[in-house]
Amino acid sequence: IMFMPIEDASAQRVGQYCEENGVYFAICFRDILDQDIKAYVESCEYYVGSCWEDDAGAAEEMVAVLAENGRTVYGLEKLNPSIALAVRNDGYAAGTEANNAQIVAEYEVPNDGNSQTHINGITNFLNLYPDMDAILMTTASQGAAEAIMNTLKQNTTPDKIQVVTFDLYEGIAEDFEAGWVAAAAAGNSPDALFVFLMLANSVEGTPLSDTFINLSQKEIIVTSAEECADFEKYIDNPDFQIYSDEIIRSLNGKYNSEVSLQDFTDLMEAFSLDWVKENSV
User: How far apart (Å, rounded) are the C-alpha atoms in residues 103 and 106?
Assistant: First the structure.
């Protein structure tokens, strides 16, 4: 079983069922924040491991892009610290410190997706912090991007405020062209493939490790409309495979008796838009 735990308790329940029934299980796209539950899951005999994207590293990279553009005073669209994706907050904080920038204000993403929260938050940023020159977005989903970008466009100009964000959204290419967006982090889909292959190796008797494995998938940082088009063509496209059949088979002990965990991490580190354009099929 491979699954994405939306909340930590589900990981514990799946772990208990799998232990009772002798079923291998692994997690994709999420870490477990509750340390007691994490310790339990990692103690399970049939737990293979997990893979989630390097959100913290991606956030740091995007702050570096802003700093290169001369933008160092930020507002943060903050995720609730109780959820796993909140590591994006930490990444932005680390990137800010590394680039001698500052986060002067923040508001929290609403659990119910209420767009008015975003509208109010951005409006307050603009009214109360005239020196603010960029906004750090932790998510573009549930209508956040639309609410934020529409509010910005109605009240300011891209020479005064730029945005970095996780996830691509409809219309982002045009916002890159207009100068609103400096960078966007995306490309977490390979997580699921690596988790599947980890499980396949364990089930087929060629485990990659004697203990559980934690992998971290490098994300792609998109910085232009042209790169948005390439991302849509090569990565967000069911007609292309990011990894060829040959590469996938090489990561399975049934086809490659010498496969190792290092083979997995090398591929994950190489992941980039240029690599995918060159190697996808």
Answer: 8
Q: Quick one: pLDDT band at residue 238, thresholds 50, 70, 90? A: confident
pTM tops 0.85: yes
- For residue 259, give every residue at least 6 positions away whose Cβ sits within 8 Å of its Cβ, in sequence order, or none: 201, 206, 208, 250, 251, 252, 253
What would the two tokens of residue 234 be? Answer: 């090569």
Phi then psi dihedrals of residue 137, to 5 deg: -95, 130
Contact 47, 82 (CB under 8 A): no
Q: What is the mean pLDDT of residues 123-145?
A: 96
C-alpha–C-alpha distance, residues 158 and 90, integer Å? 26
Query: Please, where are the H alpha helices in 44-113?
Result: 55-68, 87-98
Please choose, from the candidates 193, 270, 187, the residue with its C-alpha nearest in 3D space to the C-alpha of residue 232.
Answer: 187
User: Of 133, 129, 61, 132, whose CA–CA distance to 99 is shortest?
Assistant: 61
Nearest 5°: the CA angle 103, 107, 109 is 125
Q: How far is CA 161 from the centre of its chain?
A: 23
Q: How far apart are CA 249 and CA 259, in angstroms?
A: 10
Q: Token pair for residue 195?
A: 């988790």
The sign one gets for the Cα dihedral 121, 119, 139, 75 is: negative
Distance from C-alpha of 2 to C-alpha of 68, rounded to nearest angstrom? 40
> Tokens in use for 99?
């680039």
> pLDDT digits over 221-237, tens only?
999 999 999 999 998 88
